[in-house]
Design brief:
- The structure is a single chain.
- The chain has two domains: 218 residues, no CATH class; 123 residues, Cytochrome Bc1 Complex, Chain D, domain 2, CATH 1.10.760.
- α2 crosses α7 and α8 packs across α12.
- By secondary structure, it is mainly alpha-helical.
- The protein contains twelve helices and eleven strands.
- 43% of the residues are buried.
- The strands form five sheets. The protein has a three-stranded antiparallel sheet, with no helix packed on it. Strands 1-4 form a two-stranded antiparallel sheet.
Length: 416
């Protein structure tokens, strides 16, 4: 064999080996890929942002990282807290679980919370070593509240006050006795009212977040969550939660434990989360259930569609979306009266909970479902039948439905 032939054979052998390596590598990767968990179907999850620019996507990603970060004492956690991170209560941007329930205490009427000097308005049920556990002070009323869905909240924030007021005005002539109204509250000095705001004569503003609709916007919501839920101070809320039983607890503000850039990236993340998608919209039973939903009066409070006003985020501006809420508080009767309230709402009044994402709740609640403000209802049917007060007429109609219509309604609600 000539040197040239030997060299040529060597090159062919190397090429054959290289091709074999590539084939085996691709086969191996294919096998591994089959073993890896697949990306979730976007119609069955509550994750992902609205359409954003490149710069906005970077900010969203930063907020995502912070939202799901685990806090420790070294990163500001405590000394009193409820959770170690936002994602602990809002798994997959969905609702909470009884294991992460919050307890609010202290306000029993619209004159304000009389227990702020004793640790109100929230019980921090965990503490760092060396600190005394918090307790609800004697004489304070309290209510347990499961964290609501996070997805789509930027759209709720962008609904103009005028639309909320229009829905309240329509309630005044409702034949079923529905009389929902906005919850007006004092807003913190660090919050800038929206251009869409319609303040009341006494300087209070329409609020829309929280189980009682007592929080004005997402900045207030996030700053409060950092402080009350994780015990992390910021320039917006510079003091740690107070425990009147622990004289060793910090009593003055120091350097903020989360900077404004970080906190506002979480605000941006929440604001830009996409809305939950309804599933099986072409299904005949789902369509039938939607008609039943409207016919028995559920849609009066659980408004199927709302429209946003102007937003500096293009994807949120002038959008019609389907949250199934009117953002008003309604009297739900004595059965759901915990004796505690926030803002100008009565103790038996609760904000209409958005129904979007309802069918996905078992996925973040251990395969079960915990509904209403404190998770006391363990099925959709049970939650409906616990509706009293302004919703009693609709609950009665549900109770009188035929088996077919009742089943269709539940199928519809599970599609949301």
């Amino acid at each position: 064999m000539s040197p040239f032939q030997w060299l040529l054979c060597g090159m062919k052998r190397k090429a054959t080996l290289l091709i074999s390596f590539i084939v085996l590598t691709i086969a191996g990767l294919s096998s591994c890929y089959k073993m890896l968990p697949q990306m979730p179907d976007s119609t069955n999850t509550l994750c992902g942002p609205v359409d954003l620019s490149s710069a906005q996507s970077v900010l969203f990603s930063q907020g995502n990282d912070q939202f799901f970060a685990i806090r420790t004492a070294a990163t500001g956690l405590g000394p009193y807290f409820v959770s170690t991170g936002c994602g602990e209560c809002h798994s997959s941007d969905n609702r909470g679980h009884p294991f992460t329930i919050l307890t609010r205490f202290g306000q029993s009427d619209t004159t304000g919370n009389k227990f702020m000097a004793e640790g109100g308005p929230q019980l921090q049920n965990a503490n760092l070593p060396g600190y005394a556990p918090q307790q609800i002070p004697s004489g304070a009323t309290s209510s347990k509240m499961i964290a609501p869905v996070t997805a789509g909240v930027g759209f709720l924030e962008a609904v103009p006050d005028s639309e909320i007021l229009a829905m309240a005005a329509a309630n005044l002539t409702n034949p079923d006795g529905v009389r929902g109204h906005p919850n007006y509250n004092i807003i913190p000095s660090y919050v800038t009212p929206s251009a869409n705001a319609v303040p009341r004569g006494d300087g209070k503003y329409i609020c829309r977040f929280g189980r009682k609709a007592s929080v004005y916007d997402l900045l207030q919501q996030v700053a409060t969550a950092y402080n009350h839920d994780m015990g992390i101070t910021s320039s917006y809320m510079p003091f740690d939660p107070y425990n009147y039983l622990d004289q060793m607890a910090p009593s003055s503000a120091g350097t903020p434990e989360v900077d404004n850039t970080t906190l506002n990236s979480v605000v941006f993340y929440c604001r830009c989360l996409q809305t939950p998608n309804q599933r099986d919209t072409g299904n005949a039973t789902v369509k039938q259930g939607g008609q039943v939903f409207t016919s028995i009066g559920c849609a009066t409070c659980h408004q199927p569609t709302l429209t946003t006003g102007y937003s500096p985020i293009d994807a949120l501006s002038y959008q019609t979306f389907s949250p199934y809420t009117d953002l008003l508080v309604h009297d739900m009767g004595p059965g759901l009266d915990d004796g505690y309230t926030e803002g100008n709402a009565k103790t038996s009044e609760w904000r209409t909970a958005p129904l979007w994402g309802l069918g996905l709740a078992p996925g973040v609640q251990g395969g079960n479902i915990y509904l209403l403000h404190d998770g006391r209802a363990h099925s959709i049917e049970e939650a409906i039948m616990m509706h009293g007060g302004e919703a009693a007429v609709s609950a009665g109609r549900f109770n009188n439905l035929s088996a077919s219509d009742r089943s269709a309604l539940i199928t519809f609600l599970k599609s949301l």
